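Figure 3 (text version): structure tokens given as input.
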């Protein structure tokens, strides 16, 4: 690593999947010509953070997790022209390079270099060990340093809580429905797994003009919120779910099924609850050892489309202004998705709640209430 490490901040550091994360003093790398240093105003705790913390997804350690954040610009690199001190920004966890084969095709969410920063240390511990930013962002901290290209300016009428959720859950869930699968008006939609991403997918289905929206989760306490955010039916995830979905869809299954969990079991469930010729979209990030199998005959016979969804196919430059407008007009209700608040010391509890399927989104305010 070149350059210095001058600014010391509190951060929640993950050292091992077997050990709770703990607050440490770390020193951030100095701001380069194209970077910004930002104060984290609000950061959501996402299911991917849990998967990274528990070792389900690979993560170089020690690391500072957190990738769904709204922040305020504190320092600007000499070559940055489009941001000013005090600007509020959403931090992107995939930063398009603008140069690779996917960026050239307009698939910026698949950018070959978009997540490369996550493999590079961005800070030092008190003992001068290199520390890595979880999913390139590292927002479970008072501050972080990112390229200016990873910071999207937030309009004044969007709150920091709303902006934070647009950093991952909302862009992923709404984008899965409206962009990746591109649901047609009048379609029937099933959403499996009602965390932040799933409830955003429910809202996306409403936006897309779906005729029937069926929301499924193992936790029946989520029924009320799912209905409030646009679901027509809530079903508890159990042995009878498939039958209930068939009954609700004239024996056919849904046109579009979204698996917002990302496991072999839920992928098979989503497959089994969609109609012949229907679409199954895998939104949740699963583990590399969790294999799902299909017989050659069923792939032919059911003629379904199975699609992987990365970050809701987000193209931030085009999509963020649209999402801001949906929030502004009340078509996306993001504050309803925040079910807990806390500081950096509450992160481990938020992770445990999430693992137990409790709550939707905990928003953490790293530098305390302002
Ligand atoms: Zn996330
Ligand atoms: Zn690229």
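Below: residues designed for each position.
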């Amino acid at each position: 690593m070149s350059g210095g490490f001058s600014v010391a901040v509190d951060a929640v550091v993950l050292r091992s999947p077997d050990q709770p994360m703990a607050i440490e003093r770390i020193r951030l790398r100095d701001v380069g010509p194209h970077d910004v240093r930002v104060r984290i105003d609000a950061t959501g705790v996402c299911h991917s953070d849990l998967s990274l913390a528990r070792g389900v997804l690979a993560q170089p350690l020690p690391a500072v997790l957190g990738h769904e954040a709204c922040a305020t610009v504190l320092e600007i690199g000499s070559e940055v022209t489009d941001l000013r001190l005090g600007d509020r920004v959403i931090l992107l966890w995939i930063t398009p390079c603008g140069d690779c084969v996917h960026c050239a095709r307009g698939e910026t969410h698949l950018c070959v270099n978009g997540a490369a920063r996550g493999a590079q240390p961005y800070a030092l511990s008190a003992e001068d060990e290199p520390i890595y930013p979880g999913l390139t962002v590292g927002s479970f901290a008072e501050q972080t340093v990112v390229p200016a290209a990873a910071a999207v300016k937030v309009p004044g009428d969007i709150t920091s809580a709303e902006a934070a959720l647009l950093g991952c859950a909302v862009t992923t869930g709404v984008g899965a429905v409206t962009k990746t699968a591109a649901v047609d008006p009048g379609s029937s939609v099933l959403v499996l797994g009602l965390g932040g991403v799933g409830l955003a997918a429910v809202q996306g289905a409403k936006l897309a003009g779906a005729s029937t929206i069926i929301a499924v989760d193992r936790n029946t306490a989520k029924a009320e919120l799912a209905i409030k955010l646009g679901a027509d039916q809530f079903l508890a995830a159990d042995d009878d779910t498939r039958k209930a979905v068939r009954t609700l869809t004239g024996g056919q299954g849904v046109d579009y099924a979204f698996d917002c969990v990302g496991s072999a079991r839920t992928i098979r469930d989503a497959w089994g609850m969609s109609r012949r010729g229907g679409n199954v979209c895998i939104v949740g990030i699963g583990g590399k050892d969790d294999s799902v199998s299909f017989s050659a005959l069923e792939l032919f016979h059911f003629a379904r489309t199975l699609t992987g969804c990365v970050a809701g196919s987000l193209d931030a430059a085009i999509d963020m202004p649209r999402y801001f407008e949906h929030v502004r007009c009340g078509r996306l209700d993001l504050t309803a998705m925040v079910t807990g608040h806390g500081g950096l010391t509450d992160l481990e509890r938020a992770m445990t709640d999430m693992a137990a399927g409790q709550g939707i989104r905990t928003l953490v305010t790293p530098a305390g209430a302002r």
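The longest helix spans residues 316-328.
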